[in-house]
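As a warm-up, study this chain.
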Amino acid sequence: MWFAGGFLWAAIVAHVKLADSLPAEWEGRDVSVRGVVADLPQLTDRGARFEFDVEQVRTPLAKVPARITVVWYAEGSGALPVSLHAGERWDLSVRLRRPHGLANPNGFDFEAWLLERGIRATGYVRPDTSNRQLKSTVWRPAYLVERTREWLRDRIVSALADEPSAGVLIALAIGDQQAISRGEWTVFTRTGVNHLMSISGLHITMVSGVAFAIVLWFWRRFPALVARVAAVKAAAAGGLLVACGYALLTGFAVPAQRTVYMLAAVAAGLWLGLASRPLAVLALALLVATLADPMCVLAPGFWLSFGAVALIMYVTLGRIGQPAWFVNWGKVQWAVTIGLTPLLLAMFQQVSVVSPLANAVAIPLVSLGVVPLTLIGVLLPVDWLLRLAAWLMSLCTAMLEWMSTLPAAVWQQHAPPWWSVPLALLGALWLLAPRGLPGRWLGVVAFLPLLLVRASVPAPGEFWLDVLDVGQGLSAVVRTHGHTLLYDAGPAFSSDTDAGSRVVVPFLRAQGVKQLDGFVVTHDDSDHFGGANSVLEAMPVGWVATSLPSDAPSVALAARRIRCFSGQSWDWDGVRFTMLHPAWESYNSPASKDNARSCVLKIDSAFGSLLLPADIEQGSEMELLRMHPEALHADVLVAPHHGSGTSSSIPFLARVAPSLIVIPVGYRNRFGHPKPEVLARYEAIGSRVLRSDRDGAVMLRFGAQGFLAEGYRASYRRYWQDR
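Now compare it with the structure written out below.
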């Protein structure tokens, strides 16, 4: 009955959220809306991103979801045309699209994240004279909370404009994790302290405890108050109110929710005179969290947060004897590290080995030093407190940076098979059982499948190709029995993020690829080389073949760099690789365009062939027909230049004669790729078409049964996916 009730409740909530959708016919059309800036505007190098609560749709017959997220792009000078603040009411002209994200194995599910947050359309603000502010402040509680958060952020920024730790202090004060730089997140993740660098349950509990102590001290000073309400009950209520206020200021993420619900359960037990059992309190908090928002189970933080608390209770409650505090502290760190390892490897394919040591240093320094100083500093007009907090945070970061550079700081591996995760969790519980239980060492045996079962690889003579979904760009991974080649690395999304760090490296890690034998960066176009440096930073690369200039910064980290040219060839595990283009002479021709120098790669095996032409256009296609007419035929063709109208000429397609064409293309991209006339040519030659915008990553397996092709969205079917 309870299972059916939970399923029904989750289905109802999902149905209500999905019903508030943007009709397909209104994608990509200008719509005039009136509403309120609903959260902190996030400033980037391209503009400002913010959530917008739609109060009125002013365009006749248009339908827009109640909550959307939009970007207001900066002007040519790099400055925003307006000043945006949370809680303002605006008339805006927007162009929207339905929720749609990149779809890759073991990748971030952007569509699930949007559903969890109740956002049912994304887009951008159109330059229009109708864009105008109507009201500077909308007096509603949620917007006032966001305005307060913005004021606190501005307070820290103004006091610490020159401090590198300002972003971390902003995250600790108001939960704005976007303020932390990519480099800092890398250090915190490698050392396993990333849970501390936003609002964690530990921080909220500490603030609530201080409030509890203050109210308890004050209440006991007045006998009349004690006669009406017991001091401990009043203190519990005061601590809970402070915890709720702090959690609201931090955005009420899953760790904050879990802590508030647990504190509420404890306070309720005190007020009602019930014995509060810790495990019952945790179960009640879990129930309230899932009832309040069933979608919260889609967030990794849900499982890690509740799992960590459950493990701490498991190793500290009901045990005989009271060890010294430092022994208990070490036991807790050991338990959390061991107990969460299966989940971390399943979700992120890495776990910090130095986490116990790093947390032993960072938890007292951050929770007892940085957080109190930051909270007091933002509430009082005393900048030196914030500067002291920033100094302590810089000291902590310096120690964490040293730990993150240790040779074995992080254990990284392939994504484990699903059945090994619950087995390892049972092993962790057995390993952490009380002393005296026989055979606790058997818990280690239960971990072995998680660590030792190897990821599958092609058999000798076979090869696999994965055309990743990187948006408007290209990145493809070719694997043979013992070698891996990366063909391009996708685009850069902003100055801090790119397809290399967001898509390519996580995919390679999940597949068990620890180094690249070769890396082809086809030509000087940012949608192909944008993620190259992130890949080169993340793992060893044997060689880089490219047509880029020798001083190109995008491949500056390559240890061995060669030019790609027609005539290069090599064999890996019974699979033949041949470079068909460009001609060596093209490097001496200043008139040659970047696209015309694309590295064109042909792959042949006993089970099928593949042609990777990058961004060549019709002139290069004609050159290939003259120079390599017999080598062009392939079972699979990755569409030249994303299916643009300047490529895929009829003679070229007739010579290649592919049975399958894969089009790497971004959803509703601004170039209109693939062009309708090009799709008509593909249809005319009888080729099956798979597209990354529609099918997600395309996975090809060339083996004894020929070649098999499947889009990731077809194998990873979820009800929130846009079809």
